[in-house]
Structure formats: structure tokens, C-alpha cells
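Fold this sequence, please.
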Amino acid sequence: MGRIHHLVRTQFVPRPLEEVFDFFTDAFNLERITPPFLGFQVITPPPIEIRKGTLIEYRLKLHGVPLHWKTRIERFERNVCFVDLQLKGPYRLWHHLHEFRAVPGGTELGDVLDYQLPFGPLGDVAHALFVRRSVEQIFEHRQKVIAELFG
């Protein structure tokens, strides 16, 4: 089995907590904040109510390879956090905690991602060569777009 990798990001947005949380619990906004090179598309038909147990399916391209991704919302606390867990997709593990906290002047967003690649030691090599950087690029792009959207 390969290593579990950990990524943590925080970001301040000068908007009220409820507005920011509502944006992130609209699954179709994920298309807006995901880099275009992934060709990311939500394929679950609307409306999608984000709550514990919600299943969401996506289509994307990872390094040009078309993939199907399915997640389940494992935890949901309104205006506090939610967790999406990959059920089907390119990773052996993808556990993404989205945190929201009201702070003076706006909202602090937190992303805590634990992920693991398949293929044991080969997955670790792939992570070192290109996957780590790809995941970082995805989150850098998200932060840039979120800053633009929320001012």
C-alpha cells in the first residue's frame, strides 16, 4: 500500500459565512472553481441537495485520460463543514474536509485533504513525479478563482 498524502489550505474571503457556505454546497459551482485542464463536469442531474449521504457523479480528464468519479457526502454540518469521500475514481483514498468559520470581516475557508494513490510503491513514484504537483495546481487554481469570485 502507498503512502497517504495530506494537503491543507486556508483562505480568507470577505463575505458572510452563510453566503460562502451556500456557494460551496452547490455542486455545480465545483465546475467553476476547477481548472479547465481537468474538463470537470458534474453528471448527476440537478437539483443536488448536499447533505449527509448525498451521492454525486462527475466526469473529468486526468492527464488526458477520461475518468468517472463518484463521491458521497460523509459529514454535513450547516455553516461549519462537510466531507466528500471518493467511492469511485482515480485515487485509492480521497477524503476532503471543507471547513467554514466566521471571522472578523468575512469567512475563513479550510481544505484538509487526505489522499492515496493506487499501485503501492508505483503510486508513490507517480505522486513524486507529477500527482503532487497536479493536486497543488488544482487547489491553487481554486484559491485564485474563489478570490476573484468573492472579491
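The chain has a mean pLDDT of 95. Strands lie at 4-13, 41-42, 55-62, 65-77, 81-88, 93-103, 106-116.
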